[in-house]
Amino acid sequence: MTQSIPFRPLMVICRQNSSDYLREMSHHVTPDPSVPTPAELADQTLPFAVRRSGIQGYGGFATQDIPAGTRIIEYAGARLTPSEAEARYPDTPGARHHTYLFAIDDEVVVDAAENGNAARFLNHSCAPNCDAVIEDGRIWIETMHDIEVGEELVYDYAYILKERHTPAAKRRFPCACGAITCRGTILARKR
Fold it and tell me: What is the pTM of this model?
């Protein structure tokens, strides 16, 4: 649920000194979901830490050895209908696609940009070491094989695009994983 910002007349804001204004406004600003919060950076309850990634932006890196089959985190966020998700993030032709949406089924989409957690920083790879598992209406990220300390946790987003996978479509959904098997896109293979 989105928190509404109360209307404040401009003349009241202008009378406040700048530090009061900044302190007041900081409670109404939604943080950038592409940047981890201090709490996410300091979270030691997870078997991974969020830090800069060579793949893209931030990523999750193992802070301990993690055995295969370990459920490491739930992909959390606001639960939306597909039409609500489309309204929030309209697809702009020719623009690079980037959201924190994850479809559970045809009726529920999780938006980790709102009330999400560190799972949103796990990057895509065409050579994944994790998998997304949907169970009882929840999304879990699990390891596919043993993970060593320092290894980046990645899974195949396998984004489903109904339109033809033209070169232009693939450019909107690029992959930079660097794997030998990299297909150059986060799109699922067409069957």
Answer: 0.79
